[in-house]
Amino acid sequence: MKRIVAVVVTYNRCELLKECIEALRSIEEKIDIMVVDNASTDNTSEIVSKYSNDSNFLYYNTGKNIGGAGGFNYGIKRAYKLGYDYIWIMDDDTIVNEDTLQKLVDTANSVQDKFGWLSSLALWTDGKECVMNYHEVAMDWNREKKNILNGRLLCQAATFVSLFLNRKAIQEQGLPIKEYFIWGDDTEYTKRISREYPCYLVLPSQVTHKMKNNEGTTNLWEIEDVDRIERSFYSIRNDFCTFKRISFWKMIGFLKNQIGVLKKVIFTNNPYKMRKMRVLIKALWCGLRFNPKIERV
Length: 297
Hints:
By secondary structure, this protein is of the alpha/beta class. The chain has two domains: about 5-210, Spore Coat Polysaccharide Biosynthesis Protein SpsA, Chain A (Alpha-Beta Complex), CATH 3.90.550; about 220-290. The chain has helices spanning about 15-25, 45-50, 65-80, 100-110, 145-150, 165-175, 185-195, 225-245, 250-265, 275-290, and strands spanning about 5-10, 30-35, 55-60, 85-90, 95, 115-125, 135, 150-155, 165, 200-210. Strands 1, 2, 3, 4, 5, 6, 7, 8, 9 and 10 form a ten-stranded mixed sheet that branches. Strand 1, helix 1 (about 15-25) and strand 2 (about 30-35) form a beta-alpha-beta unit. Helix 9 (about 250-265) packs antiparallel against helix 10 (about 275-290).
């Protein structure tokens, strides 16, 4: 029987973490639950202590905030070394349904374990599709008719909100890049795996992603929150690194897009103009030299 572990990365969202864990405990399939805590300073330790006597519950504190990318790198590495066949990763605001995992396992069986990852459909709290959890879907619909009839779509990229990883893909493709810290680590990792393995969005497998707002990634020139402007550095730098590694022309396309963003920052009337220009230019400059190694297991 295949061994499955759900890896939940958390940071200072103890109430959401509790809801996430309880939802995982309610499913019928026998799985282990691993919580990777990025050194939370709220009541997370009290929440996880309630499960400490459960034989299927694992808890690791990273000792410092190493970001989502670092947390998933840490958790996947731990789970791989513990010998799990499937590693099911998610953020602490991901609430699974009773049949979410079963639909993923059914798909794994139907494709005879020939996949790199499977991704659930993420819905917001109102039942509408969660805008931020995009999937880059293969466009050759004629070849995909059978997959569509079976409730799955061939994909090239997904997010880490209910991503079901095959051990074989981790063995060959390594781990998420922890140096990304936040933003873009999921895109890079899922693209890396999908270049070597078929990967799928499994439509019947659904979760609720309890984000504050159902909004996608905001363009830099539209952001009005100072902290988010500063964090945009990671998004721009990391995407630059990802497209650099895919191909020269992908990198050129990305740079053209960023020049367009810079023009909009300069020539549109929006707040924090100089701050946005500084963040964008700094991110592109750092991205030129940013080339972290892929960590293998």
